[in-house]
Fold each of these.
Amino acid sequence: MADEIELEVNSPRQMEYQGIGIRLVSLVIDSIIFGLIFGALENISGAGGMQRDMFPWYWGVLYFVIYIAYFTLLEGSKGQTVGKMITKIKVVREDGSPIDMSQAFTRNILRIIDGLFAYLIGAILIWRSDKQQRLGDSMARTVVVKAR
């Protein structure tokens, strides 16, 4: 009986796909948190006082790696980043079951494309999708839904 209830709750018909507005709020929250973390890291290492023309290239690579890791590890383990927890949304498979690390990595590495032109590419794809999916979601077979 409990299995039937679980399947019913996670049924794709009952999932509330989340659109661009709430996802943007979640991303802004995550970006603020990430900026604070990375800013602290820069200050601790002494890189925060460098002039931009002297900013080592590897800080950009490190920023990118930590950014992707933040989203991948939190979504792959909990289905939510801090921003998603606050906005009460989560990432799940298209069938409603939890995603794994591979799916989390796929959807987040594709932020490179979705994020082009201030996330305009991702926004257009979300608006055009019946499941509100950006490219990363489509390729990873994930959706963003209301957390229960």
Amino acid sequence: MVRKPHQIIALVFGCGLSRVAPGAVGSAAGYGLFFALQALTTDMRILAYVGLIVLASWAALRTGQDLEAHDHNSIVIDETIGMSLTLEVARMTVPALVAAYLLFRLFDVWKPWPVYLADRARGGGFMVILDDILAAGWAGAVLLAANLLGIF
């Protein structure tokens, strides 16, 4: 299942093969991605995220075709990128980092508007990634509000 480059990317080096909660495992991998990108300037990180979204869209599409499922549970690159994007607005404190994970998972599972619209769309690999980008937006908004209120 992780023999082809697109499968390795889509399954985040095997994280998506977890027998228990592959989306949660893929989200946890987002911490690694986030911290790896911190050496880059903000402009370079933005470019890196754009490139990763393009690459992930291709990988998700191809892997979905291989598995004959548009958004198979083992495809977790979307959770990895979404979690990393959520962390971009989190303060670097343990409570904020834990809250970021919990909030991202909440919005990824709950799928409030417009997350559920992207989740239901069948427009190729990008739509697999888009719902997690939108979930990251919700989680990030709550984190920013918590920061403004002095919670974290």
